[in-house]
Batch of 2 targets.
Target 1
Amino acid sequence: MIIDKTYFINGELYIPNANDGNVGSVSTNNLDTVITRYERQLLLDALGVELYNGLETAMGDLESAAQKWKDLVNGSDYAVDGESYRWDGLKGNAKDGLLAHYIYCMYLRQDEIDYSTTGMKRNAVENAVRASYTEKYVTAWSNFINMYQGENTVRRSLRQFLEDRESDFPIGAFKCYGNVNRFGI
């Protein structure tokens, strides 16, 4: 995995008990599962099978991997046709990257409703009023879309980085995602 639970212990992507230290805790295990599943899914959607397999091999020993893999994961400053650009990497700047925003959205979707032996349910809370997760989801999703496929000038999206470095990362079927809004449309 490129990111871990520490991306969600504070800030705008905060998930309660994300890194509580209790190895068997439900929230810790669920978050690990979501990270493992959806990080792989997103990277396959963006890179395709061949590049994904190359990245997976490089992640085994990133220190010794080719510079292109280090740049993809950790980010880099680079120039194209005399113009300077910044790619924050899959890890993102200060644990605020596209993978973290995508994983956060997937976690929110899974955590909203539980499946129990009596059917689908939302947990009741005492001394609080339940609120919709939609506002947080839409904000995180919009940030993800911008970092993943947006048209940015200096700070490049993943799609722009891959296009700028086409000789290193020949992309085929880059999957684009759609926007969402507060109305679920």
Target 2
Amino acid sequence: MTTENDFSHATVTTRVTVRDLLPRDLPACTWSGSATHLRHVERELTRAAAGEVDYLAVCTPVDLPVAIGGVDYQVSQGAGTLWQLAVLPALQSCGLGTLLVRAAEQRILNRGLRRAELAVEEDNPRARALYERLGYVAHGREPDAWDEEGPDGSIRRHETMCILMRKSL
């Protein structure tokens, strides 16, 4: 039963912008991963300054990142490879991932490239469904691995199988 004073549901609409992720943003991005992950992102920002990658942030009106992700131009000749895409968990399924991917695709096009690629873990069906809705097609699978930081600060190797996807732009 809903009463006149039931404020448990509301719709909030706000504008967001997409811009380059900056080193000063990293303290506000702890939701995207561990301290180890954020150190890796910081290294990638050095590559962005060199023009090897683009690293984007979707930001609220107060300029806080709520979605981040990169495009690496060194992985596959003739393509931009999207990677490290993340949306603040509380705001997932609100269109921010779509906006981030579209902005990344525009960056790829701005470089004169006509193909976007990405890899998604097999055990991440929500992300794969998003990429398929955006026109990405699976074309293979390959193992991947990276270091992850546990809650106690220990580092362990995360091994996974990824689906390779691509899209003509």
